[in-house]
Amino acid sequence: MTTGRCLCGDISFKVNATPQGASVCHCRQCRKQSGHIWASAYVAMADLSISGTVKWYAASATAKRGFCPNCGSFLFWKAHAEDTMSFALGALDDPTGITIEKHIFVADKGDYYDIADGVPQKD
Predict the structure, then answer these.
(1) 60: how many CB neighbours lie within 10 A of its CB?
(2) Which of 7, 65, 83, 114 sits between 20 and 30 A of 35, alpha carbons compared?
(3) Surface-to-core class of residue 41, CB atoms within 10 Å of its CB (0-12 exposed, 13-18 middle, 19+ buried)
(4) Which InterPro entries match (predicted)?
(5) What per-residue string of b and e applies to 44-56 under the rule 16 or more CB within 10 Å gives b?
(6) Which tens digit of pLDDT belongs to each residue from 40-54?
(7) Tell me, what's the pLDDT at 96?
(8) What are the pLDDT digits (tens) for 65-107?
(9) Contacts of 46 (CB under 8 A, 6+ apart)
(10) What is the CATH number of domain 2-108?
């Protein structure tokens, strides 16, 4: 089991399965909401338990983003058509044992940084 929490601790979560698809997102929405890039992984909804009140933002017609209404930590991303939920790797308690598998939406990345870690990139 992996655990995580927001900055103020009002929201905590437990991941009861092996996280999948660990990635770093460079899309404009993730950069705007997080202040830079957003690293996440996902599990089936049934394998994620959340304690506390998550505020949901309808980021698009296809997905929503969950954050702490107290400290503002961006914690979750959920596509409406999927039965999985992505969670912020930065919110996890150490050790995680997770390794980034890919960078996504790199065509949208900011011009102020380079991706030079050798991990596969997807436009």
Answers:
(1) 11
(2) 83
(3) buried
(4) CENP-V/GFA, Mss4-like_sf
(5) eeebbebebebee
(6) 999 999 999 999 999
(7) 94
(8) 999 999 999 999 999 999 999 999 999 998 999 999 999 999 9
(9) 83
(10) 2.170.150.70
